[in-house]
Amino acid sequence: MYQINYKLSSVIAVILTTLLYSACSLIGNKKNSTVDDVFKQGAIDPNLVPNNVSYVPIYPFINNVTNPLDVFIGYDEFTYVIVDNDENILEDNELLMYDQKAQLVYRLNIPGATDLTQDRRLHTYIAGRFYTDATKTTHLAAVFHLKNLASGNPQFLDTLKHYICDESRNNTAFRGQDDIAVKFTGLATLFDNTLYVSRTGPRNELGGIARPDNGVLVFNAAGQNIGFTSQLTPNQSSLKSSVGISGIATLAAPPQRLSGISTSKNMFICLGDQSQNLEYRALSIVSSEDPDQGTIYGENGSFLNFDFSKANRFMYESFRFQQPEDIFAAPDASGYIFITDSRKDSVFVFSNNGFEGVNPPANSPTKKQIIVSFGGSGENGTGSGPFNLINPTGICYNSRTIYVCDKGNNRVCRYRLNTDLQ
Asked: Which of 186, 250, 267, 283 has the fewest CB atoms within 10 Å, counting from its CB?
């Protein structure tokens, strides 16, 4: 564990907002199940429910959030949103926490925050930046590890700090601007509270003592670095490329299920880097165990099965995406994969085998996947309608509902497949 050596009063400012009921905990009044159920179901404009299969907006949206970057529904059933109130000031990035009635109940300043996730212990991880000195002239990538957010008394357990959190850097010195350029770009956890941290940076030569910057670091529940995706390609396009990872997801995600949580170590990543013309920007990475090398991460060749009798479009089509920002895999039986693309201003939906679309209803005359991807910024690029998205960033899925950070419209939108409205 790393000892936190910065002042919470100056760097991490905790601001409690007004609670709905003074006698209630931050989790809310559990006796008021009707109100909770109304928010879970949401209000649906009947004029926006089409006859064909598609996603429809569910109200209320979370509005008036400045530059939302990431959204996550925790195992504790809170909605967490990362916002960047001022893109030039690290301290203005915040974690906002909403209850099941979409009321803001807590906010926490996290320098440079961009991404978050939560494990099954209700421990929260936030990717951000930490200052290396009191003058605040240099800052490096970090992952802040907290617990007790839901109780209103957050406790910082430790901080995974670049570059010392990477065991391959134990015998290497600070690299100056190269280390400053490194970013932690995505977070995801496994069934056993293992943490995946995606990383990007300029140093990606192979064969050195230190690992390439581009890749995924693996940490156990105690915060120890236990692995890295060394089999992925850090410097060129391929079906197992790790160039400029912008989002990461696993099959273990809330809510906690009685049927059990996936024990897979597989991951999904998206590559938003614009310095290279990457052919494949959304990838399924599969893991296997080797008695000598431990966990090995490789490509998922099955996603190249373009069965046109079952679908018309596929995740592994060449140059399918322009600038994917985030990816999320539904942990329920649907297994859908959701991707935001900020240059296409859209959300894309795929089945768990890479076919674009969702399963047709049982009574449908078509047997192919039905394409339900949506978005678009409108004719003049400033659309703010319920189906418009401008520069979408973070995405997550919970209880059959998609949550999308519509950064350009300063809101977090919710959508549900209209066949799931019953």
From this structure: 250
